Amino acid sequence: MLRIALAVTVVFAFCLAFTARAADAEKKMASKDTKSLTNAAQGGQLEVDLGKLATEKGSSDDVKKFGQKMVDDHGKANDELKQLATDKGVDLTKAMDAAMKKSEKQKDTLSKKDGAAFDKAYMSMMVKDHEKDVKEFEEASKNAEDADLKAWAAKTLPTLQEHLTMAKDTESKLGK
Known about the structure:
single chain; Ferritin
């Protein structure tokens, strides 16, 4: 009887361990999906940080409004992305550290400019950044292996496309 109880316990423990490993494996993302997720996290943080700077230093109301839109929209998307990363077991610590360094560097560059020079430099940066973002999100929305990442990218893409249009319009109002 003791042997049977021991055997049942061993089998039960094995099944539990196997189930836990299977659940962990389900959480794991393909490396290209993890890269897409970390790139989005870095880019989103950069948009928020530079958007805050634009609301403070921008001389044009259009630039200030655009900066605030970046803070609001990318802040919301960042929260969703952080939850997705948590759900998938992806640690964004290194990505966010890298984003902060890049953000500081670009903020330093922009902070040295004032008035129209700041506005033009910021909007030029936003056009280039959103062109890159739109391409990356189009790719992820079509080709991500992880269904949740694919869905989030597809849901977020129209907002990024709107940002790109706004950035180009604002940049053209300022004159290159």
